[in-house]
Design brief:
The complex is a heterodimer of chains A (about 170) and B (about 90).
Chain A: H1 12-16, H2 21-55, E1 65-69, E2 78-82, E3 89-96, E4 99-104, E5 115-117, E6 122-125, E7 130-133, E8 139-141, E9 150-156, E10 159-166
Antiparallel strand pairs in A: 1-10, 2-3, 3-4, 5-6, 6-7, 7-8, 9-10
Chain B: H1 11-45, H2 52-86
Helix pairs in contact in B: 1-2
Classes of the chains: A alpha+beta (about 170), B mainly alpha (about 90).
């Protein structure tokens, strides 16, 4: 194949370790270019890997879990719980007489625990002053780039039940 | 006032200039690819699957351009060294 031809008819070792100084510059530049192209191929493989992972990704299903009783916390009050696993800490806020919202308590910046500020009606991360909206968990200010994951709640009888996590 | 004829650079100097230009282009493309990979990974870990396909396509296109530039560098290198052997 023409594009796989070598630069000269000399053996490879002579070509790579030429006695001519001028040739050395070409060899080092060509080798660096080859290295850069291989790195570029590695980046492409990484992107393909992400694509394959996203194609085989399955939406996880979560168990339903009662997190509070109706009226257990006052309006503006807070309850902490874990969902869906014991390592996933969440925060439940009663925003109205019959309104509850719940989010992951882990800040999307560096995973500090956020708390509910009743005075400003928002979630605040004390580490780097990241603020989140209580309506949808969106970032209001600070370094976090993503909103807080929302815990989907349902009310059944006297129970507030967590049914899903929306990232 | 007479016009000076353009000075013709030796083939090795021209070859080096071409190779340096191609390498600079490859370096720029590589930086964009690194950014693309990190952005795609962050998006994937955030739960968005729809960014992976365009990121992979653009990354593939950039890799092909890099490969083309490498073949260009290889060809220039080959020609310059051949001209050096002839002299």
């Amino acid at each position: 194949m023409n594009w796989l031809r070598r630069a000269s008819s000399e053996p490879l070792w002579k070509e790579e370790f030429s006695v001519h100084t001028a040739d050395e510059r070409y060899v080092t530049r060509r080798q660096l270019t080859k290295f850069l192209v291989l790195t570029s191929f590695g980046m492409f493989v990484g992107n393909v890997w992400i694509l394959v992972r996203s194609l085989i990704y399955k939406t996880p299903s979560y168990l339903q879990q009662p997190v509070a009783r109706l009226g257990e916390i006052p309006v503006g009050g807070v309850k902490l719980f874990t969902y869906p696993t014991k390592d996933d800490h969440c925060i439940l806020v009663r925003t109205g007489e019959n309104e509850y919202v719940s989010y992951s308590q882990k800040c999307t910046h560096l995973s500090c625990a956020v708390y509910y500020s009743r005075a400003s009606n928002r979630f605040e991360c004390p580490c780097h002053q990241g603020f989140f909206s209580i309506k949808d968990g969106a970032v209001l200010q600070g370094p976090p780039s993503r909103p807080l994951p929302r815990i989907v709640l349902e009310t059944r009888g006297e129970q507030v039940i967590a049914v899903d996590v929306k990232v | 006032m007479t016009m000076q004829p353009p000075v013709e650079l030796p083939p090795q100097t021209r070859g080096l200039t071409a190779i340096a230009g191609a390498m600079a282009l490859i370096a720029v493309l590589l930086i964009v690819q690194i950014w693309l990979l990190s952005a795609a990974l962050e998006s994937f870990l955030a739960g968005n699957q729809h960014t992976a396909l365009p990121a992979a396509v653009f990354s593939g296109v950039m890799f092909l351009i890099c490969l083309g530039l490498y073949l260009f560098v290889d060809r220039v290198d080959c020609e310059v060294r051949r001209s050096g052997e002839e002299r």
